[in-house]
Structure formats: structure tokens, C-alpha cells
Amino acid sequence: MCFLPMVDASMSLTMTEFEDKKKHMHELQDRLADTERQLFEGEVLRKKLHNTILELKGNIRVFCRLRPLLPDDGGHQEASVIAYPRSSESLGRGIDVVQSG
Fold it and tell me: Partner of 69 for a Cys bridge, out of 34, 59, 75, 88, CB 3.0 to 4.6 A?
């Protein structure tokens, strides 16, 4: 019966270690959850800033679409209907439609 005090002491030490490990595990889980939340918030902010940068650069949008005249269109004209800007012209100008219709 002299082993009983040793077993009690060993069991008490094991339970204390178990509780410490359990407490440490919960702390790590809380830190992980907090880090995942921060990561999600950072990703949302990154996407927002990325979209803002794209807007500041200027989005390219289609304003008008043109196609060449087809023979069925009745337009057998030799003159160009579209005028493209030259590099010497002001920047930001687009394609000019010379003839309406």
C-alpha cells in the first residue's frame, strides 16, 4: 500500500499538466480565431483598395462600337467614315465619326 501516495502524486501532477495543456490549447485556438478574423478583414480591405486603385487609374468603358460598312449597307464610299486621333492631337480624345448614319 505504499504505492498509493506515489500514484496520487503522479496523478495530481498529470492532471495539473493536462489542465495547463488544455488552457494553452484554448489560448491558441482564440489566437487562431483572432488571426483568421484579422486575415479576413485585411483581405476585404485589400480588395477595396485594389478596386479604388483601378478606379483612379481609370476604367476603360465601351461608349460606342463601330464596324466597317458592309456591301449590303448601301455604302460603297471610298471616303473614310471614321477618323482616328493622331499622337500630335490632344490626349484623351477618342475616335470621331465623320459621317452620321
Answer: 75
- The Cα 9–Cα 30 span in angstroms is 32
> How many distinct structural domains can be found in the chain?
1
pLDDT given at position 100: 56
pLDDT digits (tens, 9 = 90+) for 44-58: 999 999 988 888 887
Length of the chain: 101
* CA–CA gap between residue 100 and residue 1 (Å, rounded): 110
In the DSSP assignment, the letter for residue 92 is: T
Domain that holds residue 26: 3-97
pLDDT at 86 exceeding the cut of 60: yes
Residue 32: helix, strand or coil by DSSP? helix
Whether the Cβ atoms of residue 94 and residue 82 lie closer than 8 Å to each other: no
Under 8 Å between Cβ of 67 and 82:
no
